[in-house]
Design goal:
Layout (H helix, E strand, L loop, with lengths): L9 E4 L6 E9 L3 H6 L2 E3 L9 E8 L5 E10 L10 E8 L1 H13 L3 E2 L4 H8 L5 H12 L3 H11 L2 H25 L10 H30 L1 E7 L5 H9 L17 E7 L2 E7 L9 H16 L2 E7 L5 H14 L2 E7 L7 H14 L4 E3 L8 H18 L9 H22 L4 H19 L5 H8 L7
Bound molecules: the ligand Nc1nc2c(c(=O)[nH]1)N(C=O)[C@@H](CNc1ccc(C(=O)N[C@@H](CCC(=O)O)C(=O)O)cc1)CN2, guanosine-5'-triphosphate (GTP), potassium ion (K) and magnesium ion.
Amino acid sequence: MQNQNNWDTIVAPATPHGQSAVAVIRISGKEAFQIVKKIWKGKELDNAKTHTLHFGKIVDSNNEVVDEVLLSIFRAPHSFTMEDSIEISTHGSPYIVQRVLSLLVEAGARIAEPGEFTKRAYLNGRFDLVQAEAVADLIASQSSAAHRVAMQQMRGRFSSKIKQLREQLIHFASLLELELDFSEEDVEFADRTQLLSLLSEIKKVVHHLKESYKYGNVLKRGVPVAIVGKPNAGKSTLLNALLQEERAIVSDIAGTTRDVIEDEITIEGITFRFIDTAGIRETSDTIEAIGVERARQKMKEASIILYLFDVNTANIEEVQDAIQEIENLNVSYILLGNKIDMLSEHSKLTAIQEALKKESQAPFMFISAKNEKDVENLKSELLKRVQQWEASLQTDIIVTNARHYEFLEKAEQALSQAEHGLLSQLPSDLVAMDVRATLHFLGEITGEITTEDLLGNIFSKFCIGK
Ligand SMILES: Nc1nc2c(c(=O)[nH]1)N(C=O)[C@@H](CNc1ccc(C(=O)N[C@@H](CCC(=O)O)C(=O)O)cc1)CN2
Ligand SMILES: Nc1nc2c(ncn2[C@@H]2O[C@H](COP(=O)(O)OP(=O)(O)OP(=O)(O)O)[C@@H](O)[C@H]2O)c(=O)[nH]1
Ligand SMILES: [K+]
Ligand SMILES: [Mg+2]
């Protein structure tokens, strides 16, 4: 049940705090018009049509003008929240915004909680929970890829997929439950082979959606690319070349970089987060050893590893050891032979190349980080990796939200149990229980099943005024 003050008329600034050309204050709820009228000097609003704009003044209790403003009015259900709403555009002074907010509160409005406008839009049926969450992702999106996936979720494709799966399962559950009604007679309305194949079909879709999360999450946060290798391989030089900025200290002293240095660039709409690390070697220096430990950790967490070695000094065994270590991590990688500008004998390069080819399918490139030779090619290669990753997904709907992932995982487990139950010919009611559990988990994703806690958790992460 909704508590009464959950439906107070609420108010909040919709634009950031600070000086700006114009600031917008939003008011939503049953009393929106009554409240604004108390501080409004301008044309009568009672008969004004929805989606109209009005020029006038905001005045305080002494009839002093606080600002000249524009009002946009929205009449229920034709507004974002589907309630009566008004937006006041003031001059963008934090002082004016604060004054107008206090006047509105004095007139009977309550300051909105973070996300409360969107929460109302959800509770009033404008969209489901996945779409409401996508509003926050859309606001946070900083690259075209992040924007694309947020937009896709806002438009409801993931929601429709989940709803479609639920409908199939509801049908499935009703067949099983029908059998329960006739349990004395030991009939099977539901053809077991058909049930099994439907179940495994649904499980497959859930699994593929779940699998897309790793990619979706990376798109949202930026693809982590760890730059690793021995001291002096040129890792920091490469970081700087990629970022086009003197971000990390470069020197000919082995062990220059000790802590992790991270920064981002966007290549054709995809954000990459490059991580420069301490050179990996055995060391008795405690601080350096911690750095080496962190480098190894970053390697594990990366989506792509760039293993850099100096083509002039590296021996083949050392590179092979590195390949071995990386392949054990099961992370996509590129071997980069650096300082190609210094290589005097061409034959040594060919020897390295031949050895690498023979030894593994390891992808490698030769670059000069210092002269920025083939750094652009490296960027194209990174972009290609990400595009291949997306193409390899078995779904064109990409999950980006940890909460969705969590419930997909629970749904997948429940589906496995239902499948197991059918295969081992467990009684229908036990199988039906697992199917109902799956329905529940999928329902929590779209908000067909929710609790106040869950909603509070989701909307409190939104910004003020959203
Ligand atoms: N000034 C302003 N800009 C904004 C928003 C807002 O609330 N205010 N939005 C909010 O975050 C987004 C737009 N979302 C909105 C969605 C629906 C309606 C609305 O008035 N819908 C009516 C009328 C539709 C129509 O005329 O076709 C309706 O659905 O009945 C308004 C904004 C982005 N920009
Ligand atoms: N000739 C040449 N020198 C390079 C190249 N890349 C890096 N160097 C030099 O190699 C030395 C080490 O470079 P760094 O970028 O500090 O190497 P690093 O791998 O970050 O080293 P640590 O942080 O100590 O592990 C510096 O003197 C660089 O100028 C290159 O492509 N060609
Ligand atoms: K160095
Ligand atoms: Mg370094």
